[in-house]
Amino acid sequence: RKIILSMMLALTFLVVGLRSHQWLKEIEFPQKSRQVYATIAEYGSRLYNYQARLRMPKEQLELLKKESQTLENNFREILFLIEQIDVLKALLRDVKDGVSNQSWSTHGDPAGQQDTTEEMLNLVNYVLKKLREDQVQMADYALKSAGASIIEAGTSESYKNHKAKLYWHGIGFLNYEMPPDIILQPDVYPGKCWAFPGSQGHTLVKLARKIIPTAVTMEHISEKVSPSGNISSAPKEFSVYGIMKKCEGEETFLGQFIYNKTGTTVQTFKLQRAVSESLLCVKLKILSNWGHPEYTCLYRFRVHGTPSVHT
């Protein structure tokens, strides 16, 4: 009897469970329950993404930090430009008020108004022309696009940065480094530089044509746009040598200089020794940097002078 009763109870519970399951399928969930489930799913997705970030390699996290710092610096530059635009607007407003006063003083003379407008246009064109011009105002015979190049045999090895890699689907497979001829190109922005290990190095530049060199220019980024907030990898003491014959042989000392990291980003140095013969190659030797223990970065190097008549 006990066995029969227990079996009947079990069958009764089974039938009731099947009917209730069918009834639950037919009934729709309330809207609040769906919202609760959607919220739980959203927080579950956030938790998964957070765990995925925790599982990231340290190198990728450092790259993300650098990218965020770069974005922050770009944002600061945009704010600075907006401030400058506001200043220009105020200046133009003052000029406009001055023109209005001038027009009132001419008692409605259209010729006077036209002269004032022409003067304003000439002033604006002059300012725009100065902004477009190069700061150095001297020809660069070490410019790559003009035909200059780097001679690898007379150049130090590049700094091997194992953190700077090319990634494919999150997997780093190739170390990435800037070539030495990056210092012969005009585009200067953070990270686009040639780095060599330590604080001493050299590079040999074949100029675009033979010249009698008179000055050199060293360019670096400022601390304001540096992602690290400092430019300790900038060159400090450096010397320049000229090579007479086919970029080989005896080196002629042209001068030794100091790049001031607190000065302007573009600094021109007049050579301390004059040469009578035309040179095709110039050697740059970096003697020290501003304190970085691992590497030194060069952004741009220019050579100025008088071109040879016979070339």
From TrEMBL:
Domain SUN: 147-308
Membrane topology term: Single-pass membrane protein
Signal peptide limits: 1-20
A Pfam family this chain is assigned to: Sad1_UNC
Gene Ontology cellular-component terms listed: nuclear inner membrane
Keyword Membrane: yes
Its biological purpose: As a probable component of the LINC (LInker of Nucleoskeleton and Cytoskeleton) complex, involved in the connection between the nuclear lamina and the cytoskeleton. The nucleocytoplasmic interactions established by the LINC complex play an important role in the transmission of mechanical forces across the nuclear envelope and in nuclear movement and positioning. May be involved in nuclear remodeling during sperm head formation in spermatogenesis. A probable SUN3:SYNE1 LINC complex may tether spermatid nuclei to posterior cytoskeletal structures such as the manchette.
PANTHER family: SAD1/UNC-84-LIKE PROTEIN-RELATED, SUN DOMAIN-CONTAINING PROTEIN 3
Annotated protein name in UniProt: SUN domain-containing protein 3
UniProt organism field: Daubentonia madagascariensis
